[in-house]
């Protein structure tokens, strides 16, 4: 028995050629994003914080200065938003770099 053009192939439209074609797209999940934050303290030099923002967060001098001053005045400020692994790497890099220079600067991440 033929199941060619015009035949009833069991798709529900009895060979009328009016079937609805539904595109199936594979489910892709967007990754959760994480904020990387700098915390204020009384001892880390402003210039060091600016350098950290330039070095690890690709900020220019003006952006870095603004963020540093925001943290200085508000206690906390955002350096960037990343996927989990990138955020974790940034936090580790900043903490290691700060400790190597004997500054108490704190860097943390939080889920958005
Ligand atoms: N409060 C520091 C000072 O007065 C500067 C500072 C800014 C420290 C931002 C940490 O994340 C920080 N030297």
Query: Which cofactor or ligand species appear?
Result: L-tyrosinamide
- How is the largest sheet built, in terms of strand order? 2-1-3
The general outline is: elongated
Radius of gyration: 27 Å
Proportion of residues in extended strands: 15-25%
Mean pLDDT: 88
Quantity of strands, as a count: 3
* Cα distance spanning the termini: 59 Å
Task: Give keywords.
elongated; disordered N terminus; 112 residues; binds L-tyrosinamide; 38% helix; alpha+beta; 3-stranded antiparallel β-sheet
What does this structure look like?
- This protein has 112 residues and is of the alpha+beta class.
- It has helices at 46-57, 61-74, 84-100; strands spanning 33-39, 76-83, 106-111.
- It has a 3-stranded antiparallel β-sheet with strand order 2-1-3.
- The longest helix has 17 residues, at 84-100.
- Mean pLDDT is 88; it is low at 1-12.
- L-tyrosinamide (TYC) binds at residues 38-42, 44-46, 49, 68, 71-72, 105.
What topology does this entry show?
Blueprint lengths: L32 E7 L6 H12 L3 H14 L1 E8 H17 L5 E6 L1
Antiparallel strand pairs: 1-2, 1-3
Helix pairs in contact: 1-2
